[in-house]
Design a protein that fits this description.
FAS1 domain; 16 helices; 7-stranded mixed β-sheet; 4-stranded mixed β-sheet; alpha+beta; single chain; elongated
């Protein structure tokens, strides 16, 4: 679906006469419209926004009972965005980013203009804060400095209120890559960034994507056997394989994950378990879900993920008590393997020096973010 951008300037310009006008649409018994009705039935000022809400599967949310405040960018505001950004957001693969953008414009309370105060900080539905100021009424004056068009605001719906703004607000996910997300949380992911920086992966995760990274915290790395991380940092190939085991090449919000196996970027399998809202990856708990980036998603986890084959540097050879006195034969060792990990991945063949896969990949993504 592509957004039409051929609106005439006089159609997108917000005025006192045009912005508040809404035709009668789907309404409740009292003749009041929903927030989505106001947008979709307006005289052309919210065409882009209504189409994006529909593409983000948020129409139902803004059409049912609720108490919302929506800061609604008009068509002219969306015209200022790069066209390739709008095209990307309309791509179904980037549904989490589109939802995050739109939820950043909404509050879970009804706030009339008269209720706003200077330097008022409020949390939006995407979990991030915006700051409101007065004289004139505006949002995030140090960033977007979006003006609230007062004569085109306080539009009441049975499920909330709509205020028109002249600039699209930019959540963290709009301009921050996975790398930016990790760097901005240096108190949590400093060790992971150090490890990524020792490989070629920082450049990869600053690129187009999308990727989902299960990001071990600094405490998770601290729990590794003494010396293991240092050894890995001295072996870039082993380190990169180890880090790729924490990544899947999909845009995977927590709501799209289900129990089962999913292939990591190093082509080994991760075991995901979803149980009553709790998510584990192998033996690691997802403790910081759904940090949305422009090119993917970060889920913070509380343990480092070890590939199925282990790591050659993991156990020093001078620790015989770590192993059984009688080593199993090759035949008996093979018989104990479940076959689940490798069989599920399908057959791999070498093609031009690069492994290629045939069959067996099972995606654990079952749909978009559900609100």
């Amino acid at each position: 679906m592509a957004i039409e951008r051929n609106m005439q300037s006089e159609e997108t310009e917000v005025t006192a006469e045009t912005a508040v006008t809404a035709e009668t649409g789907n309404s409740d018994d009292d003749g009041e419209d929903s927030i989505f009705d106001i947008l979709s039935n307006s005289t052309g000022n919210f065409t882009f926004l209504a189409e994006l809400i529909d593409a983000a599967e948020l129409t139902e949310v803004l059409s049912e009972e609720g108490n919302f405040t929506l800061f609604a960018p008009d068509n002219a505001a969306f015209e200022e965005l790069p066209e390739d950004m709008l095209t990307k957001l309309m791509d179904e693969e980037y549904l989490p980013q589109l939802q995050d953008l739109l939820l950043y414009h909404a509050l879970d309370s009804v706030e009339f203009l008269a209720n706003l105060t200077d330097d008022m900080m409020v949390m939006t539905l995407n979990g991030q804060n915006i700051t409101l100021n007065l004289d004139p009424a505006r949002i995030n004056e140090d960033v977007e400095n979006a003006t609230i068009i007062e004569e085109a605001s306080d539009m009441e719906a049975f499920n909330g209120i709509v205020h028109t703004i002249d600039t699209v607000l930019a959540p963290e996910s709009m301009n921050s890559t996975i790398v930016d997300i990790l760097l901005a949380r240096n108190d949590t992911f400093a060790t992971l960034v150090e490890a990524l920086n020792a490989t070629t992966l920082l450049e990869l995760f600053a690129g187009e994507g999308p990727f989902t990274i299960f990001a071990p915290s600094d405490e998770a790395f601290d729990a590794l056997p003494d010396g293991l991380l240092e050894e890995l940092l001295e072996d870039p190939d082993a380190l990169e394989d180890f880090l790729r085991y924490h990544v899947i090449e999909e845009n995977a919000p927590s709501s799209s994950l289900s129990s089962g196996e999913v292939e990591a970027l190093n082509e080994d399998l991760l075991e995901i378990v979803v149980d009553e809202g709790n998510i584990t990856v192998n033996d690691a708990n997802v403790t910081m879900p759904d940090i949305i980036a422009s090119n993917g998603i970060v889920h913070g986890i509380d343990a480092v993920l070890i590939p199925p084959e282990g790591m050659p540097t993991m156990f020093p050879t001078t620790m015989p008590t770590m192993f059984p006195t009688t080593m199993p034969t090759e035949k008996s060792s093979k018989s104990r393997k479940s076959g689940k990990t490798k069989a599920s991945k399908g057959t791999k063949t070498k093609k031009g020096g690069k492994a290629s896969k045939t069959g067996g990949k099972t995606s654990k993504l079952n749909g978009p973010l559900h609100l």
